[in-house]
Amino acid sequence: MVKKHYGIIMIVVLVILVAGIYILKITAGNKPNMSANATVSKLISVDEVAIHPENFKGQIGVSGKVINVDTSNKSFALGCDDACIMVPVRYNGQSPNLGSQVVVYGEIKETEQGKYVLDGQKVEVK
Predict the structure, then answer these.
(1) CB 79 within 8 A of CB 63
(2) pLDDT digits (tens, 9 = 90+) for 76-102
(3) b/e string for 10-19 if b means 16 or more Cβ within 10 A?
(4) Which of 40, 45, 101, 118 could form a disulfide with 61 if both were Cys (CB 3.0 to 4.6 A apart)?
């Protein structure tokens, strides 16, 4: 009788283990990447990033208006409609036009001076 219960317990443990591994593989496959067709599930407004840039880790999408372009430094700034705040963006691609509404995909990085910059990897014009 004890051996019968032991066998059932082993089968249940094995099923739970296999199900757990399957769930981990599914969730690991849903992480966003920055390929050409990548999408980020949540877009963050430039206001949120400007207030607390240190709170954002990993790949994010930031939406805002291009309020300044510096082609010599391959950078531009995102702001809101009234341009009261801004988030500097480093981007090696072609800079968007001044005044464009964009989404910048990238990562917040802290500079040597203790300031924060969005290291842009992809820019989509809305």
Answers:
(1) no
(2) 999 987 667 899 999 999 999 999 999
(3) eeeeeeeeee
(4) 40
